[in-house]
Design goal:
The complex is a heterotrimer of chains A (319), B (300) and C (393).
Chain A (H helix, E strand, L loop, with lengths): L5 H20 L6 H24 L7 H19 L3 H23 L4 H21 L1 H4 L5 E2 L5 E2 L2 E2 L3 H24 L1 H11 L1 H6 L4 H27 L1 E2 L6 H14 L4 H16 L9 H15 L7 H12 L1
Antiparallel strand pairs in A: 1-4, 2-3
Helix pairs in contact in A: 1-7, 2-7, 2-10, 2-11, 2-12, 3-4, 3-5, 3-10, 4-10, 7-8, 11-12
Chain B lengths: L5 H33 L6 H18 L4 H24 L7 H23 L15 E3 L2 E3 L1 H23 L1 H11 L1 H6 L4 H27 L6 H15 L4 H22 L4 H15 L8 H6 L3
Antiparallel strand pairs in B: 1-2
Helix pairs in contact in B: 1-5, 1-6, 1-8, 1-9, 1-10, 2-3, 2-4, 2-8, 2-9, 3-8, 5-6, 5-8, 6-8, 9-10, 9-11, 10-11
Chain C lengths: L1 H23 L8 E8 L6 H20 L7 E8 L4 H13 L5 E3 L4 H14 L3 E3 L19 E3 L4 H15 L3 E7 L2 H13 L6 E8 L7 H10 L3 E5 L4 H11 L6 E4 L6 H6 L8 E4 L15 H15 L5 H20 L3 H11 L1 E5 L2 E4 L14 E6 L2 E4 L2
Parallel strand pairs in C: 1-2, 1-3, 3-4, 4-5, 6-7, 6-8, 8-9
Antiparallel strand pairs in C: 10-13, 11-12, 13-14
The chains are: A mainly alpha (319), B mainly alpha (300), C alpha/beta (393).
């Protein structure tokens, strides 16, 4: 999918805007807007990650760390120093950008599994720091009392208000990222994914592009972290552990990583599965979750965004 | 008050580190066997170790089978799990991309963990040490007899594998797949079978690691993931695909953790091993014994 | 042809949606029930807490309903699994409040998840009885008083630490090494060990940590052996607290006095330690040691009954963590029996009427200034002797 069509984005935006109202009409899904806040937060991460993995072809198993850095920088600066949350959010993104640059520059020279391990190692190291620096982070018990967000006296203090705030960020990030994909830079990225030697022969500065995308995706994760911290008013390290990084990978793979819509669909599905739907299976939850993942990877190798394409060819074949 | 001299302390750290490192090394060897044939990292490798420990508990403690029977029975059962993993999760994938395969192994590891929780529950289980629990003192350092079993089995695995890959036809065929799958196909090697064999083999090694480590550290259903991460780290540190590298990587990781905990800070011991790993990768992107030329032709 | 296939597809989709919705819908209740919510970490890395808590709460609800409910009202217990995850706990509590409309909530199991949902309980004004250890749950640092809507049943780490320190002081020992696991439980205990050490004149000469999935703690113990403390205090739960005992006995350190935290309270740990637990001391609540209590002990009856019921129903040894849910459940049941299911009344009842409540982990006396309600009597110092608990002199 080279072009991102305008119509789907408009429909998507309309759905997002009306969703809380629709959900509130049906008692059993009344609380879905609340879950959608987290879906939005995770979408911010997967949109960046999808650009990094699907388009630039670089794996990262450490994005939970950037998510965590955003959350902790926001948390520490607002609770301990009483700074304005919006300023903290920007500081967090800057700090994350610097860290991503420092980690990304040497890491992105690595290939494949080596890059996976390097980012994984980085993620675990950051997680250990969250756990160990108790004076700053509160240690494993976490950090309570993080203030909520407000803008010019308007408080984002209900689920629905925060929902619109988060999804406004998601739409902005989505459109911005879609534009990147359609620009010259996007073409360069796809060239990198297809064949690095060919791209470099065409005069694409591969290293520079990779790092820019890595930093961009890290900054989006940091923003998501800040939004998470101010919504929950509480953070603890286990939210930002290795398993969350893997969950992000699963979201991308399940949604379909060669398409930015896959990032949204993957985040939506995995979040609802793990926060809501699998609850009915109680003790069997883990088994069902594993089985669903396995079946999707086996039968939908291109992720859920590949389903319409598969159905089309299925209908055609049968005729 | 009995104390311990500094040199004895250092020796103790080394012994402990090498034992823990041997387990990592066995996991890393398992990673390499599958990687060499398929280029994928099987994140369910840690689950083989977990299953090895828990199935051994079932045979040896639950059914009171003697060690010499329970051990091979466990290895065979886990090997079957490895074969099932390939048949049910890996080979049905029609257009395999490396990321899809990795996600499939992660999904499989979640599934195996869930089933293990269902069968054994969430509590840890113990296994009697193979030759008692009376420690031996060497140079002031204390060594559990089980440590020798762990290190010993690592050596057995290494010797058996090198005979297998260098001396047997099947082993050579597997090495051929590792070098060049297309060429291997041309000379009539059944690559699908080789992949199946690689899963069986690495499951068996995982089971050996699980059986030997359980008397030291107990075993419960959710230990696999951490072992997989450590083993993956060891495999990368040594250089993916290199068996001596895997063993070296595992032992180094174990030793750094042990010395780091004893001499610097136990809270950050896991971070030290990973910082060393990152440092090595930044200077030598293919790991200590990894071949940069070979890693270039690999897709992933 | 195409149309036919599409029709089939759509029908399948509609059916599965219908199935999902029908699964989600709860069967209609014939009469008014009292709804109690519960948040436990039933699965995941901290399932050793949430699993026995869930089993205990469900067992009690079953018993109550089998006996005709509370004043004729059925008791409906709605348990959500937090997996020890702050996000899930947050979502689940909101769901319990807005969707299930429960009148009181038990849990969460962990200090972290409890601290995570505490602002929600305050904001939505719903009574919450946490089953986690940290004193921060019932101590608002800004006001120095408890949070209005939040109570808790477990003894705080502070009490466990003080019990150990007092014991050490009575032995005249003050050079100690501490070890802790790098989870919420370990870090919280470590914090209290460090904080209270000066008060009891304790010198902490080693402060070692290990991860919850570590396979061997020999390195940490070797370092401690080199320093030579008079006693070692270990704060962890799960398999590591057994491994640490084995490593210690391997290293010939059995002669150094060894304390475990109150997390050691399961006989299974003694069994798993394979002899290495002999002589180890731990501060434990009554439900761990029901058989050791004298006939005069007020807690003996409740503890014995709980232990037998649990063993009969689940065919597994009792874990002391389940006792925290027992305490919370019966407080709630008492409140519902006395004043019905009004949230404000339940809160007031808990604060004013839980006096001399005989629970599994002590005799509770809640008040406006104390939402934990236990004294240091809630712990008995227990020593492992001949593979079983025994009261330490």
């Amino acid at each position: 999918m080279l072009q991102i069509a305008k119509l789907p984005i408009a429909i998507f935006a309309a759905l997002i805007i009306t969703f809380p109202w629709m959900a509130h009409q049906i008692p059993v899904i009344d609380h879905y807007a609340d879950i959608m806040v987290f879906v939005g937060i995770y979408c911010l991460i997967t949109i960046g990650l999808s650009l990094l993995m699907g388009y630039a072809g670089q794996i990262s198993v450490g994005h939970a760390a950037f998510f965590g850095i955003g959350a902790y920088v926001s948390g520490i600066l607002t609770t301990n120093y009483g700074l304005n949350p919006w300023i903290c959010m920007i500081i967090a993104m800057l700090i994350t950008a610097v860290i991503a640059l420092l980690v990304g520059a040497p890491s992105l020279k690595l290939k494949g599994h080596y890059l996976a391990m390097a980012t994984l190692a980085f993620g675990i190291i950051i997680f250990i720091i969250f756990n160990e620096e108790i004076e700053w982070t509160g240690g494993p018990d976490g950090m309570p009392g993080i203030p909520g967000l407000s803008l010019f006296g308007f408080k984002f203090d209900s689920v629905d208000k925060y929902y619109y705030l988060v999804w406004a960020f998601v739409l902005a990030a989505f459109i911005f990222t879609a534009n990147i994909i359609q620009s010259d830079a996007g073409r360069a990225l796809r060239a990198i994914h297809t064949s690095e030697p060919a791209a470099s022969a065409m005069g694409v500065d591969i290293a520079k592009f990779k790092i820019i995308v890595f930093v961009y995706s890290a900054v989006l994760a940091s923003l998501a972290g800040s939004l998470y911290a101010h919504y929950l008013n509480f953070i603890n390290p286990s939210t930002f552990d290795l398993f969350f990084s893997i969950k992000l990978l699963i979201m991308i793979a399940l949604g379909g990583m060669h398409n930015i819509w896959g990032a949204i669909i993957g985040a939506l599905l995995i979040t609802f599965l793990s926060y809501e739907w699998l609850h009915y299976f109680e003790e069997f939850e883990v088994i069902v979750y594993g089985a669903i993942l396995l079946l999707v990877t086996i039968f939908l190798p291109n992720g859920l965004v590949g389903v319409p394409e598969m159905l089309k060819s299925w209908v055609r074949r049968k005729n | 008050m009995e104390t311990i001299s500094f040199t004895s302390q250092l020796f103790q750290y080394l012994i402990t580190g090498l034992t823990v490192g041997s387990v990592y090394a066995m996991v890393a060897v398992g990673f390499n066997i599958i990687y060499n044939v398929t280029e994928i990292i099987n994140f369910a490798q840690g689950e083989f170790v977990m299953l090895g420990g828990l199935i051994m508990v079932f045979f040896h403690v639950g059914m009171a089978l003697p060690l010499v029977l329970a051990f091979p029975a466990t290895v065979i059962l886990v090997t079957l799990v490895g074969i099932l993993l390939d048949r049910l999760a890996i080979s049905p994938i029609r257009q395999p991309s490396v990321l899809t395969l990795i996600i499939a192994t992660i999904a499989a590891s979640i599934l195996i963990k869930g089933i293990a929780m269902f069968i054994w529950g969430k509590d840890p289980f113990d296994l009697p040490a193979f030759s008692g629990r009376n420690p031996i003192t060497v140079m002031g350092a204390v060594i559990q007899p089980q440590y020798f079993w762990v290190i010993g089995f690592l050596i057995v695995v290494v010797i058996a594998l090198s005979i297998f890959f260098d001396r047997t036809i099947i082993g050579k065929a597997m090495s051929a797949c590792a070098d060049n799958a297309d060429a291997a196909k041309l000379v009539g090697i059944n690559v699908k079978q080789m992949i199946l064999l690689s899963f069986a083999l690495s499951a068996a090694i995982g089971a050996v690691a699980g059986v030997t480590m359980t008397p030291i550290s107990l075993m419960e259903y959710d230990r696999g993931a951490m072992l997989a991460v450590k083993g993956f780290g060891a495999a990368i540190l040594g250089g993916l695909g290199s068996f001596p590298g895997a063993i070296l990587g595992g032992l180094i990781m174990g030793a750094i953790e042990s010395f780091g905990a004893g001499l610097v800070s136990s809270g950050y011991k896991d971070a030290f091993a990973l910082i060393v790993l990152l440092a090595v990768l930044f200077f030598k992107p293919s790991g200590i014994l990894g071949d940069i030329e070979i890693s270039k032709i690999k897709r992933f | 042809m195409i149309l036919k296939r599409i029709t089939i597809l759509i029908t399948i989709c509609l059916f599965s949606i219908g199935l999902l919705i029908s699964c989600a819908e709860k069967p209609p209740e014939p009469k008014k029930t009292y709804k109690v919510g519960a948040l436990f970490s039933v699965t995941g890395r901290t399932s050793f807490l949430g699993d026995p808590e869930k089993k205990t709460a469900e067992m009690i609800a079953e018993q109550i309903n089998a006996a005709g409910g509370i004043n004729g009202h059925n008791l409906e217990l709605i348990v959500y699994d937090t997996e020890g995850d702050a996000t899930k706990a947050n979502l689940a509590l909101k769901k319990l409040i807005t969707q299930d409309k429960v009148s009181v909530v038990i849990g969460p199991s962990l200090s972290g998840t409890s601290l995570a949902v505490l602002p929600l309980a305050e904001q939505h004004e719903i009574p919450l009885i946490s089953c986690a250890a940290s004193y921060k749950i019932v101590h608002n640092e800004k006001t120095g008083k408890p949070y209005k809507w939040v109570f808790k049943t477990p003894q705080t780490d502070t009490m466990a630490v003080e019990a150990i320190y007092r014991r050490l002081k009575s032995y005249g020992l003050n050079y100690i090494a501490i070890m802790s696991v790098t989870t919420g439980f370990g870090a919280s205990g470590r914090g209290e060990l460090l904080r209270l050490a000066p008060k009891y004149g304790m010198n902490i000469i080693a402060d070692e940590k290990y991860g919850p999935k570590d396979t061997d703690m020999t390195a940490q113990l070797t370092k401690i052996k080199g320093i030579g403390p008079q006693a070692i205090i270990n704060w962890s739960v799960g398999p590591t607290q057994v491994t640490v005992l084995r490593n210690r006995s391997d290293l010939g350190m059995a002669n150094i006095l060894f304390f475990q935290s109150h997390g050691f309270g399961s006989r299974k740990n003694i069994e798993l330690a394979a002899g290495a637990a002999e002589g180890v001391l731990a501060p434990l609540g009554a439900c761990n040691i029901a058989e050791l209590l004298t006939a005069y002990d007020v807690q003996r009856d409740v503890a014995m009954k709980y232990m037998q019921d649990y063993k009969t129903k689940y065919n597994e040894p009792l874990s002391s963590f389940g006792g925290h849910a027992w305490d919370a459940m019966y407080m709630v049941i008492n409140a519902l029996t006395e004043i019905g299911d009004d949230k404000v009344k339940i809160r007031d009842y808990l604060e004013n009427n839980i006096k001399g409540f005989v629970g599994q982990h002590g005799v509770f006396n809640y008040s406006a200034d104390d939402h934990n309600g236990l004294t240091d009597k809630a712990f008995a110092m227990v020593i492992v002797k001949d593979g079983d608990w025994s009261l330490a002199d």
